[in-house]
């Protein structure tokens, strides 16, 4: 049984799918106007662990990640420039050039981190028709009003507003630092459709019953999730900054369909840098490319992510990344000394301990600890490697390609010479070479006349 912390009920709950044996899952993906940074990828790796866990538990998963290529404004609400249009202007390119380029870059890093691809990456601009008809449906049901710059959702009409985000109109009004659009009826109201500025032609704009314009940021996720996954979905994920965005998704979707939108809301905590926020101005917003340029393996970053629980913020430092890389290389070294699988045999106790912690709200630090316990145990090598590869279906550390890799020739030669001494009863020389091998990180285990070389942990 999988247990999930549901941000809506603020409780750990048993996972019960809508349809037995299948899971529908949606993750809010990147806004593709710039490079995704290692903070963003922490969220996608968390989502990947969750996806993999469902797969390992034999669920069939219908999984969607969206690509926001329109409508995300620079203040995350309804004012400011569209991030994509702004970048297009700055770089003298078309919006499509910008989004195509950053989608391509995103997918390269995505693969390097061994994040499994969803059934579909949905692009917001390919679902304009669905977004327009969703807004029309909300209008028909009386949840919207028009202003001089677009169509807005009236949050006072949705009783459950604030249940997920804890944001209520009064609080926002009290804490408002920015001037609230005077045409809004409630501070929490948000744009469903925005009209293009009269004096300016946008790269991306469409006809609609309300005039030429573009969809608000929140409506895309509702439209794509409803179209691809149905009116009620099992799991919806995103970073912890998206509570308000998700609250708006709930409002739009539930008011349009009259059904509950999502059963399990999940939010991944942020990656911090040196204890603080990542930001362009502090020059500490690293990409995977920056990590690689410093000689790190992308999977060391993945290992580093796994060292924290997805609901706890994780602090990135170069030292912490170095420790993750050291641990990962040690893991690879150990399995390099193993022979590839000849027969399937599992260490059931370790595997069930591993699945228990993974299934208990995806506790990856404990999962890694269980993996190391297995490696240090006296379970046979074949059983270890089979069990490890099964664990790696969740971890995604590419252990398989390191199994049975060659041991350096000089080590093989040393072990061979030692074995000759041993077989001829020249114990002192054999012992001396054993010590030399151990100092180089290898153990020899005698097996009759033969022997086995292993990496030391
Ligand atoms: P964006 O491209 O800004 O729309 O963000 C894409 C995803 O990354 C969203 O799910 C965000 O919540 C998430 N995200 C943004 N910054 C961070 C961070 N520092 N740590 C973890 N996730 C983040
Ligand atoms: Zn979303």
Q: Name the helicity range.
A: 40-55%
As a percent range, the share of strand residues is: 15-25%
Question: What is the name of the CATH topology of the largest domain?
Answer: Rossmann fold
Mean pLDDT: 92
Helical/strand content category: alpha/beta
GO molecular function, one term: ATP binding
Binding site for ATP: 280
Keywords: Aminoacyl-tRNA synthetase, ATP-binding, Cytoplasm, Ligase, Metal-binding, Nucleotide-binding, Protein biosynthesis, Zinc
Enzyme class: ligase
Could you characterize what this model shows?
ATP binds at residue 280. It comes from candidate division WWE3 bacterium. Helix 7 links the parallel strand 10 and strand 11. Helices cover 43% and strands 16% of the residues. Helix 6 (217-229) crosses helix 7. The model has no long low-confidence stretch (mean pLDDT 92). It is of the alpha/beta class and 457 residues long. The strands form five sheets. Strands 5-4-3-10-11 form a five-stranded parallel β-sheet, sandwiched between helices. The site of adenosine monophosphate has 15 residues, from helix 1 and strand 10.
């Amino acid at each position: 049984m999988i247990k999930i912390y549901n941000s809506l009920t603020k409780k750990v709950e048993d996972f019960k799918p809508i349809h037995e044996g299948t899971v529908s899952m949606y993750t809010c993906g990147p806004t593709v106007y710039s490079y995704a940074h290692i903070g963003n990828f922490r969220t996608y790796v968390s989502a990947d662990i969750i996806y993999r866990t469902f797969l390992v538990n034999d669920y069939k998963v219908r999984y969607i990640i969206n690509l926001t290529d329109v409508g995300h404004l620079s203040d995350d609400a309804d004012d400011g420039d569209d991030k994509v249009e702004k970048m297009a202007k700055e770089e003298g390119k078309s919006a499509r050039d910008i989004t195509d380029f950053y989608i391509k870059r995103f997918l390269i890093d995505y693969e390097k981190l061994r994040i499994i691809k969803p059934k579909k990456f949905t692009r917001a601009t390919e679902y304009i028709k669905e977004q327009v008809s969703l807004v029309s449906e909300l209008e028909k049901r009386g949840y919207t009003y028009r202003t001089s710059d677009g169509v807005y959702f009236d949050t006072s009409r949705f009783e459950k507003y604030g249940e997920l985000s804890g944001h209520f109109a009064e609080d926002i009004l009290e804490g408002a630092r920015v001037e609230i659009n005077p045409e809004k009826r409630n501070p929490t109201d948000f744009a469903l459709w925005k009209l293009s500025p009269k004096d300016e032609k946008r790269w991306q704009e469409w006809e609609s019953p309300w005039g030429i314009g573009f969809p608000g940021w929140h409506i895309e996720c509702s439209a794509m999730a409803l179209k691809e996954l149905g009116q009620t979905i099992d799991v919806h994920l995103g970073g912890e900054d998206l509570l308000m965005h998700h609250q708006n998704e709930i409002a739009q979707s539930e008011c349009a369909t009259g059904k509950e939108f999502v059963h399990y809301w999940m939010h991944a905590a942020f990656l911090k840098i040196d204890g603080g926020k990542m930001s362009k101005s502090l020059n500490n917003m690293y990409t995977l490319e920056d990590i690689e340029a410093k000689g790190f393996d992308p999977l060391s970053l993945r290992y580093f992510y796994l060292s924290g629980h997805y609901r706890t913020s994780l602090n990135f430092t170069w030292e912490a990344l170095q420790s993750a890389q050291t641990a990962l290389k040690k893991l690879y070294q150990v399995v390099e000394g193993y022979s590839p699988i000849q027969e399937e045999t599992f260490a059931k106790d370790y595997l069930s301990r591993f699945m228990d912690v993974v299934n208990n709200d995806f506790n990856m630090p404990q999962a890694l600890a269980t993996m190391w316990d297995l490696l240090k145990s006296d379970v046979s090598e074949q059983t270890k490697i089979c069990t490890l590869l099964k664990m790696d279906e969740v971890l995604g550390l590419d252990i398989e390609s390191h199994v049975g890799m060659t041991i350096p020739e000089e080590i093989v030669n040393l072990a061979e010479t030692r074995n000759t001494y041993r077989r001829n009863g020249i114990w002192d020389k054999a012992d001396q070479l054993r010590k030399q091998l151990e100092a180089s990180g290898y153990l020899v285990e005698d097996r009759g006349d033969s022997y086995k070389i292993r990496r030391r942990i």
